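Customer escalation, tier 2.

The customer says the design service returned an amino acid string that "doesn't look like it belongs to this structure." They asked us to rerun it and document both sides in this ticket. The original structure tokens are below, unchanged.
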């Protein structure tokens, strides 16, 4: 099975590693190979992660990475 692994960068969130696969077992297998504790993973989406830090993305006009800001 194929597992896609990305490092995501979003404004105001810490960078995080995203695992995507057709099955949960495929992700568990990759975690085991990489020695990443599966219990440390989350299934939260970006909206939920923003809510945890007090940002409601549905009522925020835009979010910009510091490196993308124009003076």
């Amino acid at each position: 099975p194929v597992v896609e692994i990305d490092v995501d960068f979003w404004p105001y969130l810490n960078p995080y590693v995203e695992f995507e696969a057709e099955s949960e077992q495929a992700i568990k297998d990759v975690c085991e190979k990489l020695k990443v504790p599966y219990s440390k993973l989350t299934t939260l989406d970006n909206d939920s992660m923003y809510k945890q830090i007090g940002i409601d993305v549905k009522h925020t006009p835009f979010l910009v990475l510091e490196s993308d800001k124009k003076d």
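Tier 2 assessment: The sequence is consistent with the input. Helices lie at 24-34, 46-52. The chain has a mean pLDDT of 88. Sent an explanation to the customer and offered a walkthrough call.
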